[in-house]
Amino acid sequence: MGKKTKWIVIAGCCLALSTAIILHEAFPEARTEPDIRAEKKAAAEKRHSATVKTNPEAEVTVAAIGEAAAELPAGMRVVAENSRLQLLLNDKTTEAAVREKRSGMIWSTNPLDRDKDSIATSVNKAELASQLILSYYNDRGHESFINNASESIEKGQFEIAPIDNGVRIVYEIGSSENGLGAIPQVVSKERFEERILGQIEDESVRNRLRSRFFFNEERSVYERKKMQDYIVKDVVAILESIGYTAEEAKRDSESAGAAKEEGNEAPRFVVPISYELDGANLVVRVDTDAMEDTEAFPLHDMQLLPFFGAAGMAEEGYMFVPDGSGALIALNDTNKGTRAYEAPLYGPDRTPLDSGLTLAQYTQISRLPVFGVKRGNEAMFAVIEQGDAVASIRADTSGKLNSYNRIGASFRMKNMEPVEFRAGSVTRQVPKYSQSYDSGITLRYGFLSGDSADYVGMAHSYRDYLVKRYGLTRVQKTSDSPFVLELIGSIPVRETFLGIPYKSVEPVTTFEQAIDLMDALQAQGVYQIRLKYSGWFNKGYYHSFPDTIKPDSVLGGRKGFAELAGYAQERNIELYPDVAFQRVYVNGKGFRASRDAARFLNRKSAKSYKPDIVTTNPSDMEYYLLSPRKLPKVVSEFLDDYAPLGAGGISLRDLGEDLNSEVTPRETLNRQEAAELAASALQTIRDAVGRTLLSGGNAYAIPYADTITDAPLESSHFNIAPEQVPFYSIVLRGYADISGAPMNHGKDQDPRSTLLKMLETGSNVFYQWFYEEPSAIRDTKLNDLYSSHYANWLDEAVGVYKEANAVLKQVQGQTIADHRKLADGVYETTYEKGLKVIVNYNKAAVTAQGAAIEALGYRVIGGEL
Predict the structure, then answer these.
(1) Has residue 148 got a pLDDT over 70?
(2) Residue 497 scores a pLDDT above 80
(3) How many helices and strands, by DSSP H and E, does the chain display?
(4) Which DSSP category does 180 fall into?
(5) Where are the domains of the chain?
(6) Does 366 score more than 60 pLDDT?
(7) Which fold has domain 90-171+270-467?
(8) CA 782, CA 507: separation in Å to the nearest integer?
(9) pLDDT recorded at residue 425
(10) How sure is the predictor about 338, in pLDDT bands with cuts at 50, 70 and 90?
(11) From CA 9, how far away is CA 310, in angstroms rounded?
(12) What range does the record give for the signal peptide (predicted)?
């Protein structure tokens, strides 16, 4: 080791020592604890210091940067470095940080100045120093919380080890000591004398241990006496010295007929976190296979790096959340009454009954696994690469529990459901748990500066990520923008014969009538039609299990469908017959709920409901949830029948929108595995059929979508995140054609506002119609579509399309280069080749960019208008 390196190592040791003193001063309450705890903590730190492994290459790196080492945050050292980033670590507090070399910005897992926080007290102060906040259940299913600052770091219960390009930290959170659970309550005479006493050489120790048990001659067993804490520790130490484990103690007690003991276990969790530099990104992983919890205290939810990149009260900027289209949370929002933001990715999982979520709670679904924060001219942006299907995004502003604005992700590790047991007249609820999530967690953090440090830069970063990872390709350019239309074919109805009710199918748009509507549209100059045809086979819109296909005879049967497909091909109309795979509307005809449905933890077949189109409250239309395990088989069987029909495309009602797990205790298939099965099915379908139209557009489905309907064009307008942004559209524009909800089903059915939204987001016209009179669907389970009679909308739809198309055809196939808010209700979108559109949602005229824009109007700059 050279002299310079030696001096730097010595200086580093001094710096670490001074940091330890500073941290001790920052937590004065630790000095009021009993001496025994202080001694215990010191011993733990001594044990820990022996396990910390320093990366030799990191030492060379520190030496190489010379004076820059003096600029490191107090107590931190460089553990990895590349041309873009430095990864820093504090060995005492385990907080990590990333230095972006070009800007010098340091992004830390915990606020570096948290000791100055004047708001946080007690547990909130500890959470500021935590990399993990866990929630867990007790034996009654009640939830509690624990953090790794108080229950791991302060106790020295962690190990640090170098890995390629980074570092791995294993945290033991909670009690690390065995208690009464490691001592058999009752043990047979033979086991006690042979397995335990027979392994102890020192006679005095044998006698000391024997004195802690009472020999029951009648039962020929040794029974544990009552013990004080110091005796428990002594006995446990003796048993550990002979390799006698808590598992053996449990087995011996059960074999000897001991009753189950309550309260002997304490919460204990093991969580490994790794930090790794990958080019311009920091990759954070949790090896879920190596995680541990206890049977008595199962882990429920894990907040990972909840304060990474947290912004202080003096900073300006916002946090980005993927709520619907995307939304912004202003830093330091002074409204302390707003609730913290929390929303699950891909909407609620409908199989665990403990999700606590209903469809009505989220008017918009978070469909992209991303989040970010802008702090001045710098920004951090995160993509959840693995674990996204069990993740929720959490965010909150400063001034409530602490002085920081924070955003991050939490992960549902285990689901719980109370199950009732009855014994006579007594009913008791017992918590039942799914298996632990074990499919891994990976987050990729990127860092943006200058003009790219905003939500547009984040969207471009994510788009580039999707292109690189999944090979997304640009949409095919056409002369006009698409006109997307969904037609409802046949619907289920209840009829009577001689007073006896029976189920029947009623046509509301036959195949021939669909052709007539296409003729009507093309006669008025609408040519780029994409026809989604729902309710065309297996008894209508709520069709039976799609393992076989039979076009509905009331619509024209197989012959009529062939004529429609031929007509579409001849007129260059893209036809997308619709199918639902995961929502099963009929128990029978290939589907048996007891065999094929997903299940709740109580083993009942899982059902969900169709939300009301306006209120999102439950309707009377229930359906079964297909077990994700059954998806590959039904898709394969469907495609065997579908290929000969020659449709050329397919609409997938639920594969891009619904995502549900299988939570039965012995057959858990977690939501991440379900997402992988859905993606695999989508790949199979696209390879077999060609063109795909998806509803919803969850991230795992995007690589397989040509057209996406019901895409999020608005946010949920939560009080904490009132500013919506077209993040989803910025990501996908140019790589998929997107449309929002049907324009004739909007909340206010205002075609003008909808037109402006299309121009702002680059989305396309989308209507949902049927041909027959509205009375045809009255008193049916599609009654909410009463206003969808085509004659009420045809002229309006053509007019809206022509006005929108005059602008959108000029940017067909182009990405969105920029988006910004000019004033309240006034937004400017810049497309790839420079065309700008300014929209004014206000009911009064405004002046923007030097020109007047009328109320509910727009202005095109650089185009033909």
Answers:
(1) yes
(2) no
(3) 18, 44
(4) G
(5) 90-171+270-467, 180-255
(6) yes
(7) Beta-galactosidase; Chain A, domain 5 (2.70.98)
(8) 13
(9) 72
(10) confident
(11) 31
(12) 1-25
